[in-house]
Amino acid sequence: MLLFLASQSPRRREMITWLNIQVAVTAVWIDENPYPQEPPAAMASRLAYLKAQAVRDLPDGAWVIAADTIVDFNTVPLGKPQSPEEACVMLQYLRQNRHQVHTGLALFQSSTGTGQTCRVTTDVWMRDYTDAEIATYVTSGDPMDKAGAYAIQNVAFHPVARLDRCYANVVGLPLCAVARLLATYHYPMPKLELSRIPELCYQHFGYRCPSPDQGVCI
Fold this sequence. Notes:
- The chain is of the alpha/beta class.
- It has one domain (3-215): Alpha-Beta Complex (Maf protein), CATH 3.90.950.
- Helices cover 31% and strands 23% of the residues.
- A hairpin with a 2-residue loop joins strand 3 and strand 4.
- The chain starts with a strand and ends in a 13-residue tail after the last helix.
């Protein structure tokens, strides 16, 4: 069975290969604006579903997996900044504060119309970085394609003080949840024990996840 990843994110494209899955990548474009009064968590799930549905001309029996990540600051969704000035404002809001990162996942089979959506949420606390550090980081251009205007894995800026639950979720693809979702629908998985996925996060991110249960979808 052929699996397509509906994503423009280079990080997601790289991360899904760590599961040793044969996957094709296709870019999709959808309207990512929130609905009025839409909770950020619901928005992440909805956009992931729309991305999966937006893939066209699939081979018979193909599967599509899609993801969308939203930074939730006091119930306000923070997407990708539209300007360096907006990136600075987002990072100032987040500084020394707690927020949540929601990643919605959607799995869809074109020929049957069957599938499922789920979501992983991580609590994140940001460190007390300075305005000068923000300015240097924004000048680098790294925040501009990131929800909430930051990359947790950026070594130079290292914006996060601590987190609770899945690190890979904050990067944009909760690997344990992806593996579980595929297994639920009997997608042929390689011989990669779920318990070994946290080793991948340590290998690539230097983060020691306590358990694959940290990335459980809800």
